[in-house]
């Protein structure tokens, strides 16, 4: 019973529309079964494409995570090294103040004690300290028992301060120490000025490169390919692992690439080809960078394992769906052919092959309606074989059947139009 609101009627109408649409779609599939195969193939390909997209997204996410980890490690190492350099720079500035004060010794004992205290705090990074006069000779070493004065006039830090009054803190290129048996060191230096602001010498703190290397080797680098400390001119100061390039070895950088923050050339270290993915952080207050490269080999190995697993599952599902779709198409075609044969048998006279009474009734109904719509005439011709019973009695039913088939063939051969029908 329909209420005044009309809700049941609306629901029934909606349900009827849905059933009609489903019936129409089902009819389309019955008429064109290949559409099921095409749709199944498209869905299978969409599954493969979706899994491929997910795997690519996962790879990018893993890559980004590795770079974030590299950035974090580079920042930690740079901050730690920057903190040490800030302490050393404070010691250098105190050495410069004392050296520039005419009322105090060139390298007072209290400053020496602070340098030794700094050595203890910095895990022996600090290798030596001394004041160089304007001629390039070590005038005030940290160790008073040092022998004859040693000249460092050929060192890059001495020449740089001598020619550049406003240089500030300068980090030298690695060198073999002349006061410690050729041990590789790098110098942190500041210029000492005379009262008239002329060049009066250099205050030097020397860092041991092998001790500096422990700063990066102590980092948990299981998921990292390498950690390097590179001076802005391209010299390797520390590395872990040091497969080819060693501390003190120069890495050729094009022009001012490192100063501009572009360390792409640093990825071509002599140790071999390195990954293009890396992160670098400038050490605060120093002309050096910490370069961290993630281990893409381990990253890709784990990703490839997942990709093979999920790819195989997706491929199996897609192949099953495609095969099932086309098998269903074949089954529907077989069913349609069988149904057509059954329909043909139900509408055909078994002896003569002409249409039977059922087919004739259906044809008469449709042609009668068409004739009424168009106003055209409808013709029916009845053909009868006279005295056929006597023929059967005289020659037998088998011969009579042959005669019936011959007559039916003759009549059926004169059917020309699609609307014509010969029936028995």
TrEMBL record:
Instruction: Name a GO CC annotation attached to this entry.
Output: plasma membrane
Enzymatic reactions: 2 GTP = 3',3'-c-di-GMP + 2 diphosphate
Entry keyword annotation includes DNA-binding: no
Task: Domain (GGDEF): give its ranges.
Answer: 376-424
> Entry's CDD domains?
GGDEF (cd01949), PDC1_DGC_like (cd12914)
Q: Name one GO molecular function term.
A: diguanylate cyclase activity
- Residue ranges spanning the membrane: these are 32-55, 307-329
Note the PROSITE patterns from the entry.
Answer: GGDEF (PS50887)
* Keywords of the record: Membrane, Transmembrane, Transmembrane helix
Question: Its Enzyme Commission number?
Answer: 2.7.7.65
Its top-level enzyme class, in one word, is transferase
UniProt-listed InterPro entries: Diguanylate_Cyclase, GGDEF_dom, Nucleotide_cyclase, Rev_trsase/Diguanyl_cyclase
- The stretch of residues making up the signal peptide is none
| Keyword Transmembrane included in the entry's annotation | yes
The record's SUPFAM superfamilies line, in alphabetical order, gives:
Nucleotide cyclase
User: Some GO term, biological process aspect, for this entry: which one?
Assistant: cell adhesion involved in single-species biofilm formation
Q: What is this protein called?
A: diguanylate cyclase
Q: Which organism is it from?
A: Pandoraea aquatica
For this protein's source organism, the top of the classification is: Bacteria, Pseudomonadati, Pseudomonadota, Betaproteobacteria, Burkholderiales
């Amino acid at each position: 019973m329909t209420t005044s609101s009309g809700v049941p009627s609306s629901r029934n109408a909606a349900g009827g529309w849905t059933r009609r649409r489903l019936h129409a779609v089902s009819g389309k599939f019955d008429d064109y079964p290949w559409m099921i195969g095409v749709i199944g193939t498209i869905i299978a390909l969409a599954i493969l494409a979706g899994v491929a997209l997910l795997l690519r997204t996962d790879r990018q996410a893993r890559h980004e995570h590795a770079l974030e980890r590299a950035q974090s490690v580079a920042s930690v190492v740079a901050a730690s090294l920057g903190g040490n350099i800030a302490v050393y720079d404070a010691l250098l500035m105190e050495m410069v103040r004392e050296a520039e004060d005419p009322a105090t010794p060139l390298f007072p004992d209290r400053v020496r004690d602070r340098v030794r205290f700094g050595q203890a705090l910095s895990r022996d990074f600090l290798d030596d300290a001394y004041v160089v006069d304007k001629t390039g000779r070590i005038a005030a070493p940290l160790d008073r028992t040092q022998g004859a004065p040693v000249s460092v006039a050929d060192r890059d830090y001495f020449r740089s301060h001598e020619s550049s009054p406003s240089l500030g803190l300068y980090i030298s290129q690695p060198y073999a120490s002349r006061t410690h048996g050729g041990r590789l060191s790098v110098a942190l230096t500041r210029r000492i000025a005379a009262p008239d602001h002329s060049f009066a010498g250099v205050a030097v703190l020397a860092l041991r490169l092998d001790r500096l290397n422990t700063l990066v080797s102590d980092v948990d680098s299981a998921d990292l390919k390498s950690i390097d400390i590179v001076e802005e001119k391209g010299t390797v100061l520390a590395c872990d692992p040091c497969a080819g390039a060693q501390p003190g070895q120069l890495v050729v950088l094009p022009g001012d690439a490192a100063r501009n923050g572009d360390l792409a050339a640093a990825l071509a270290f002599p140790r071999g080809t390195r990954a293009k993915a890396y992160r670098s952080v400038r050490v605060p207050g120093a002309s050096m960078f910490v370069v961290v490269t993630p281990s893409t080999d381990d990253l890709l190995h784990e990703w490839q394992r997942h990709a093979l697993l999920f790819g195989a599952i997706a491929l199996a599902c897609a192949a099953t769906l495609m095969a099932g779709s086309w098998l269903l198409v074949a089954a529907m075609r077989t069913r349609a052919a069988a149904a057509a044969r059954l329909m043909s048998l139900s509408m055909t006279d078994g002896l003569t092959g002409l249409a039977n009474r059922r087919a004739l009734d259906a044809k008469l109904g449709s042609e009668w309606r068409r004739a009424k719509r168009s106003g055209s005439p409808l013709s029916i011709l009845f053909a009868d074989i006279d005295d056929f019973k006597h023929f059967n009695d005289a020659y037998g039913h088998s011969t009579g059947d042959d005669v019936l088939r011959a007559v039916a063939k003759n009549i059926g051969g004169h059917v020309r139009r699609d609307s014509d029908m010969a029936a028995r």
